């Protein structure tokens, strides 16, 4: 496993395990336990995933010292605000059964996220969070936050895969010293990514799977990845990407696959924003 050093000196694994869309407690706990056993040390969850308790249960029984794990969770839209964020953070911490978080992220750039950020800055300075960051902040929103915050975000978790590569976003993150992290690094299986002829040929050349080639491509761009699976063989396979390197020629071929827009979410859509505001993580 390789690591990246965040802008505050904290070391973060370049690959982690995500649990989005794994709401079943038993399945989620087993998947996280399998991931930790396979060698993952970064586990990424969120209040909006409704599985923090299951993640916490897996952490409790995994046998790996807490300081060797890097645990991330996220603040949902309804909790964007100073007081709300303080309460939501403690709720997440209690559900996970932890004394501190390694990374706490604002899940969406909606609502009073500036109030939430002030609360997170305080929690960070108190040592309850090792690093704070954001998700889904497009370049202009990230730049505005970086120019007004006391603590620059350590991470920006955004959609990054061959069909939506976001080079402009990566350039903005680099300018402000923010580490990019990819959600949906396998494009959620869209566009026939796993059967793409070029990627299939590339995978055969390296003796790897298409998934491994795509994940390796992102890490070679300096992007942290958090692939998700509930299948033990794929959990192991997704981690086995650190023994090969894509040539520059192959990196360029994948770069040419960029569509320039997301076909998974549209944060510029008022309907999608209304949907996110209406999604509740607690009543």
TrEMBL record:
GO terms for molecular function: oxidoreductase activity, acting on the CH-OH group of donors, NAD or NADP as acceptor. InterPro entries: AKR (IPR020471), Aldo/ket_reductase_CS (IPR018170), NAD(P)_OxRdtase_dom_sf (IPR036812), NADP_OxRdtase_dom (IPR023210). Pfam families: Aldo_ket_red. The record marks 74 as: Lowers pKa of active site Tyr. CDD domains: AKR_AKR5F1 (cd19133). Keywords: NADP, Oxidoreductase. PANTHER family: 2,5-DIKETO-D-GLUCONIC ACID REDUCTASE, NADP-DEPENDENT OXIDOREDUCTASE DOMAIN-CONTAINING PROTEIN. This is Aldo/keto reductase. Residues 24-257 form the NADP-dependent oxidoreductase domain. Substrate binds at residue 107. The active site is at residue 49. The lineage of its organism: Bacteria, Bacillati, Bacillota, Clostridia, Lachnospirales.
């Amino acid at each position: 496993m390789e690591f990246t050093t965040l802008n505050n000196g904290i070391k973060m694994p370049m690959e982690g395990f995500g649990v989005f869309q794994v709401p079943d407690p038993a399945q989620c706990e087993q998947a996280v336990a399998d991931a930790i056993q396979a060698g993952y040390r970064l586990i990424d969850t969120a209040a909006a995933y409704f599985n923090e308790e299951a993640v916490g249960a897996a952490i409790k029984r995994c046998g790996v010292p807490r300081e060797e794990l890097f645990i991330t969770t996220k603040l949902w839209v309804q909790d964007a605000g100073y007081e709300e964020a303080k309460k939501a953070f403690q709720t997440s911490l209690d559900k996970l059964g932890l004394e501190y978080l390694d990374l706490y992220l604002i899940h969406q750039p909606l609502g009073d996220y500036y109030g939430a950020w002030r609360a997170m800055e305080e929690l960070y300075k108190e040592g309850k969070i090792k690093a704070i960051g954001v998700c889904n902040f497009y370049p202009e929103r990230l730049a505005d936050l970086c120019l007004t915050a006391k603590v620059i975000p350590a991470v920006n978790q955004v959609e990054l895969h061959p069909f939506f590569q976001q080079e402009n976003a990566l350039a903005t993150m680099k300018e402000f010293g923010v580490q990019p992290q990819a959600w949906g690094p396998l494009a959620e299986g869209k566009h026939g990514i796993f059967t793409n002829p070029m990627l299939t040929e590339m995978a055969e050349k390296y003796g790897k799977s298409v998934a491994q080639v795509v994940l390796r491509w992102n890490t070679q761009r300096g992007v942290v990845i958090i692939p998700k699976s509930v299948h033990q063989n794929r959990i192991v396979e997704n981690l086995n990407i650190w023994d090969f390197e894509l040539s520059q020629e192959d990196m360029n071929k994948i770069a040419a696959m960029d569509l320039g827009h997301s076909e998974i979410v549209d944060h510029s859509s008022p309907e999608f924003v209304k949907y996110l505001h209406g999604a509740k993580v607690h009543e």
